[in-house]
Amino acid sequence: MDRRKFLKSGARILGAAAAFHWLAAMGQAEGAALPAPLAPAGEQGNLLDLTNAVVVTPERLSRREQRAVSMLVDEVGKRTGICWRITHSWPGSPAETIVIGSQKEISEFRPHLSGVTPHNSLRAEGFALRAWTNAQGRGVMVAGADERGVLFGAGGLLRKLRMTKGRILVDERLNLVTSPKYSLRGHQLGYRPKTNSYDGWTVAMWEQYIRDLAVFGTNSIELIPPRSDDRPDSPHFWLPPLQMMVEMSRIADRYGLDVWIWYPAMDRDYSDPKTVDAALKEWGQTFQSLPRVNAVFVPGGDPGRTEPKVLLSLLEKQTENLHRYHPHAQMWISPQSFDERWMNEFLEILRGNQPQWLSGVVFGPQISLSLPALRKRIPSRYPIRLYPDITHTLKCQFPVPDWDLAFALTEGREVINPRPEGYANIVRRYAPNSIGFISYSEGCNDDVNKIVWSSLAWNPETPAIEILREYSRYFIGESVAEGFAQGLLALERNWRAPLISNESVMTTLREFQEMEDEASPHDLLKWRFQQGLYRAYYDAYIRSRLLYETDLERQALAKLEEVRRPGVRPAPFGVGAEKGYSGSELGLSAVLSEAGAILDKTFTAPVAADSRTRILELGEALYQSIRMQLSVERYRAEAVGRGATLDTLDASVSNLPWLRRRIEEIRATPSGEDTIKAILALLDRTNPGPGGFYDDLGDAARQPHLVRGLGSVQDPEFRSSSLMGFSYPDEAGGKMPAAWKRWAESLYDAPLEMRYSDLDPGARYRIRVVYAGDSMTKKIRLAAGGIEIHGFIKKPWPVAPLEFDIPKEAIRGGELKLSWFREPGLGGNGRGCQVAEVWLIRQEAAARAPDS
């Protein structure tokens, strides 16, 4: 039997095994050892064998330092089956030794460490790793600058070890002295229904994940209180929210990690003393329950909407409330969603009053000011913490640039989304204006991104591929480290080009299939490996469907083109069919029926059935292993848009639903003449006529006149660049063409612009425009060459084209500039200036003056 077919047939069993593994063994499948061969002997000349090493620690280790040593030994054991012995005494005979502790405490072993010099350059949380060989033996020293330095030193060694079943090696030239660049490196871990996995985790799973993050330098986690912008309960909960919050706080404290709380102020009116009293009581109960709280972050909006002066008054009282139970805890706030008036009020209070109780300001999604502008306008006494959205792909702070509509309609907003190179660029651009970050996350779909952010906040110079190699070596295994690391980069590249022409998507799948073929049962139990496979299969399946649907659409339109055969005289552009149609009503009906039958093949003869089956199997495995809820019906995800990508696996990725609907509507027309007109209108829908221009602004390949601006590398938030937005999921039910499900947009008060050149200076032009988008209630204005074409108007709903004349004076020297604007000063998410399609239609030549 073909091995891949065998693996497919066993996927559900493997998935069930993974669930048992997580619940019964505290996540030991993750990173478990593989029966893989070591490198050939000739390639091991610079490797130190630590298989039989002894771990030596000072007697005076703190409880958290002891936890760090236990983590090191436990994680090595999971991957190798080897249990290193821990002792406080130096081995009696030369042996391989791991010496671990704070730099101060391990000085007692210095007589045994001749030639291993101390490192006085370590800063807070830093550590030194040094492989050594002398008369006392050989081994590795792990010296932490402080308590956390010991933890991160243990994590650093785990990332450097080469572990296989029954064998542990390390580079004998290991000599690393490192301290973190940024003091705050954290991730939000919200136990709530809205996430696509977190609400199904047990206490043991949380500890394993928090430990995994600590191995890569994370020093903080952010919790969410029992009451937030979510349902109060989940069918996946193992514990009530407050009880799990307590357990997570306790886990972080055991490892010495900071605990933040994202605490939205959601009540209607905090100017009412009764509301304030109730909030103080509610928040106080949460503060009192948690064993550790280091900081509280209150977003200014999404959720919640309270005027800044009222909100700041509330938070001053909540700071006193917080200090009753955690005297040194901090209070932070973000101006999220503030409109212009509220932003100015907020900044005036900070500059004028400079409240002593406020610890800092958070910069994240939906803030109308750029990070440099915010830093410039708030007093220097307030540090800035980043709150980067690393979990979403669209309608978010850092959308995927030029994403393909096929992915937007299927993979959607919370898909498994490794973006190592993209986020590496963002970290390096944004972090210098901050003390660091705690990311916005709604599940483990962004796991790779978490590791990239933590690693780069430690050392921004680290190449992304080196982070991925350590990630792959530690979580997947030595045998596939390079292949999996390159595979993660390939998954990011899958999203970079128009899908229909991106043949590398299939190459990426083949690379993952090769790893799948070579994988052991232990590999297939690892949820991170399952995530990579799921995305590779999913991307390739969507491309296969896109190619197929596009070809069916081409065939159907070619069939409809038969109405132009001799005997049917189509009218000139914009007029419709001339009278005198000589074809029979029956023949025309047959053309429509045949065109419809071609489109129906997407259901009657679907493609890539094997890949679809494998995706479903991997979806089951991911639910069993890490509780990823990839379907609403099957796995009780909160909503389709919350990562339920199995529910959109077969969503149409082309014009087929709309085309099928239009054909049925045309078949119902009462006469052959009306039918022919409707067919010609369908075929010529995007035709701008002679001398005209058409732009599909949501398609990167069909927007030649769109002004793109700085672009995503220099402008990841698209504050000064146009970007593409999408309708997700497809709520139109085939009522609109694909071009109306995507659009170009600008954010906040920046204009969306198009430029034309070489226009006919002697002609008049008319614009046909489609205003689509996800913010249809926001008004839009259009200007041409500085001349207003229309003032702020509501966008038509249902979506429909609008037409306007372009004044002759707006075209100078054959040049035309079109500019669209959203209502100024709105704040919020910044969206609303959204345009889907534009036709610039050349009309009759203007009459020339006698002397011209």
Structural key phrases:
disordered C terminus; six-stranded mixed beta sheet; 852 residues; 23 helices; eight-stranded parallel beta sheet; 17% strand; single chain; alpha/beta
Structural description of this entry:
- The chain is an alpha/beta fold and 852 residues long.
- It contains 23 helices and 28 strands.
- An eight-stranded parallel β-sheet has the order 16-15-14-13-12-11-10-17. Strands 3-2-4-6-5-9 form a six-stranded mixed β-sheet, with helices on one face.
- Helix 16 runs antiparallel to helix 18 and helix 18 (527-560) runs antiparallel to helix 19.
Task: Provide a compact summary of the structure.
This protein is of the alpha/beta class and 852 residues long. The protein has 23 helices and 28 strands.
Number of strands: 28
Outline type: globular
Q: pLDDT under 50 segments (min length 5)?
A: 5-44, 568-584, 846-852
Work out the strand percent.
Answer: 15-25%
Terminal-residue CA separation: 83 Å
Radius of gyration: 31 Å
Question: What's the oligomerization state?
Answer: single chain
The major beta sheet can be summarized as: 8 strands, parallel
User: What fraction, in percent, of the residue positions are helical?
Assistant: 25-40%
Decide which structural class fits the backbone: alpha/beta
